[in-house]
């Protein structure tokens, strides 16, 4: 079967249109901002190819001037979308090459014959596309977040850049003087590569979006919806691994807000939610790498501190308690100021996490029994002693109203 450029351009425009639809539908589902930019990029590709196909015989201002400008804008918009994806600052300089092309076409190339301007046009276009693709590669390749599609996108854009670098070298070396015919073998090969790149890049963008959506859903399943910190399930997943890797000392704490039921009764549950969020923000802001905070239920939180003995951790918790009390008064006008109690234990990889939490929980109830707004450090306790609270309060037999009164 004999192929010529218009046939391949028609195929590429159809693929680009399908890519627009697929990316648009994925954007409606996931609302990832980068998807909108990538869909716009393929829309510009459809427009560029349509102009060149409809006006291929005229070889006029719109086909070569505006059509080629749109083709360059495709890569500018795609690179912008990639920067949005990796949370880089937007740059208007990305759109300079399409505008430069249009100005050069109006002032320099349009009055020339097509043969005279072809080598210069191809050199400029090839250089611009190669730079766009090379600018995309490090955005994806340098990422270390486990998204496989990012690595493959870096490879795809890198390969596309190599093709346009070869085109640039051929243009600068005078490898082509005249406009190629529509059935020229080199042109057909280049357009095949462009069609393949369109298919592969669109598929990888979709794959990347789905990977991100899955990761976002997984993160949501391990995040407390109210405070934004980890939930109990996430704490057990992460804390065990951190303790296995961490070198001592380390400390595990169980924290509980004092008189939280009274705050809810006096100010309402919405206000109580704000107190919980304020507490989580203050503690989370103090965390170092390798430390964990999780809301384990109600007004109770678990905290894993690395590189600190229980005594050092207790001093740190007392400072956090002062900050929380001051902030509750200044920010939320809580009167009397909100406080918390905590139980602390030295954490180590030899003791099961559940047992460590039970020991720290025993310290928490001791702190409550001794007057609240304090930190109690616990030494190792035999497992059978964990069944009884120091104040005789067993969490398995507590009435709901008694639990809330804590």
Automatic annotation (TrEMBL):
<feature type="transmembrane region" description="Helical">
    <location>
        <begin position="153"/>
        <end position="174"/>
    </location>
</feature>
<dbReference type="InterPro" id="IPR029787">
    <property type="entry name" value="Nucleotide_cyclase"/>
</dbReference>
<dbReference type="InterPro" id="IPR043128">
    <property type="entry name" value="Rev_trsase/Diguanyl_cyclase"/>
</dbReference>
<dbReference type="InterPro" id="IPR000160">
    <property type="entry name" value="GGDEF_dom"/>
</dbReference>
<feature type="transmembrane region" description="Helical">
    <location>
        <begin position="92"/>
        <end position="111"/>
    </location>
</feature>
<dbReference type="GO" id="GO:0043709">
    <property type="term" value="P:cell adhesion involved in single-species biofilm formation"/>
</dbReference>
<keyword id="KW-0812">Transmembrane</keyword>
<feature type="transmembrane region" description="Helical">
    <location>
        <begin position="37"/>
        <end position="55"/>
    </location>
</feature>
<dbReference type="GO" id="GO:1902201">
    <property type="term" value="P:negative regulation of bacterial-type flagellum-dependent cell motility"/>
</dbReference>
<feature type="transmembrane region" description="Helical">
    <location>
        <begin position="61"/>
        <end position="80"/>
    </location>
</feature>
<dbReference type="GO" id="GO:0005886">
    <property type="term" value="C:plasma membrane"/>
</dbReference>
<feature type="domain" description="GGDEF">
    <location>
        <begin position="248"/>
        <end position="380"/>
    </location>
</feature>
<feature type="transmembrane region" description="Helical">
    <location>
        <begin position="6"/>
        <end position="25"/>
    </location>
</feature>
<protein>
    <recommendedName>
        <fullName>diguanylate cyclase</fullName>
        <ecNumber>2.7.7.65</ecNumber>
    </recommendedName>
</protein>
<feature type="transmembrane region" description="Helical">
    <location>
        <begin position="123"/>
        <end position="141"/>
    </location>
</feature>
<dbReference type="GO" id="GO:0052621">
    <property type="term" value="F:diguanylate cyclase activity"/>
</dbReference>
<dbReference type="InterPro" id="IPR050469">
    <property type="entry name" value="Diguanylate_Cyclase"/>
</dbReference>
<keyword id="KW-1133">Transmembrane helix</keyword>
<dbReference type="Pfam" id="PF00990">
    <property type="entry name" value="GGDEF"/>
</dbReference>
<feature type="region of interest" description="Disordered">
    <location>
        <begin position="386"/>
        <end position="406"/>
    </location>
</feature>
<keyword id="KW-0472">Membrane</keyword>
<feature type="transmembrane region" description="Helical">
    <location>
        <begin position="186"/>
        <end position="208"/>
    </location>
</feature>
